Amino acid sequence: MSDERLFSLRNGWFRAGVGAAIVVFFLSVLIGFVWLPSAKSDPQFQGIWNAICSAAGVPRLWHPVESAVAPTWQVSTVELTPHMLDGATSLSIGRGATLSLRCTMCHGPRGMSMANSPNLAGQYAIVIYKELHDFQTGARQNAVMSPMAHDLSDQDMRDLAAYYASLPAVAHLHGEAPDIVAHGAPLRNIPACASCHGGVDSKVGSPWLDGLPAPYTKAQLLDFAKGTRHNDISEQMRNIARNMTPEEIDAAAAWYAGQSPQ
Ligand code: HEC
Ligand code: HEC
To answer: Are 108 and 97 contacting, i.e. CB atoms less than 8 angstroms apart?
Structure first.
């Protein structure tokens, strides 16, 4: 028997072999690309065309997955980088000092609040800038501060940040930190406060807490826990505050305010 006759359509066996291969091929395409994917209930597999695309690994952007819904509130739009506000000029600090005259009523003449507003003296420039920006965009809301930030230009915010950061901060003045501050609560996924807020380490964007009035610190922690303050990037503080006990919140607030631990 010659090769020519073996691979010829006139050969019945050859025709049957090729035919069977084609049938098996289409069957497996149907099963793999259409039937199996469309048996799944996920939205990205619904419809024959979507099932084929998904099985072939083509990204399907026009079928957003329902679970990734955007939050209904304004999120912070500030992108933090470690050196974004470095090298403030004396001109900028001077402009900031002039602008700060509108703020003294609540934040004190040199950024040390006599009422229960947060101190701004010695606060990191990045924090002041970010918080003002968040009050302006609505990412952080407060009946008093939101209107104060409303008309500030980007340069105003930089100048105010430079000015307040140039003032002396309250230094660590107290004895041993409570457990939650020094060690956190690893079983409840709470890192030590000191690992971000200074003491052990200071992470970009984490405010200086020393000297903050206890009622303010406590109110912020409760707001993070409830989610009414939600401008923390990646929910860092919301996740922490939610897992804190009321006693831990009181202890941290008292300690940062410089009160001796109960
Ligand atoms: C009428 C009182 C008042 C005035 C005036 C005021 N603030 Fe505030 N400020 C507050 C209060 C109260 C808060 C705390 C808001 C909260 O509880 O969320 C605050 C918060 C802030 C914060 C956030 C601090 C932090 O640690 O998170 C910054 C920054 C700030 N103010 C800057 C300013 C600047 C700059 C001005 C002037 C342009 C100003 N404030 C004017 C009352 C005031
Ligand atoms: C992983 C880092 C990290 C840890 C750990 C952490 N924080 Fe924070 N905290 C932040 C950041 C970042 C912010 C600023 C959020 C924003 O963008 O407004 C913040 C904000 C705060 C504020 C608001 C301060 C202000 O001036 O408005 C308080 C109060 C606070 N943290 C308390 C705590 C306490 C108490 C602990 C420990 C139980 C803690 N934090 C642990 C990162 C951290």
So the answer is: no
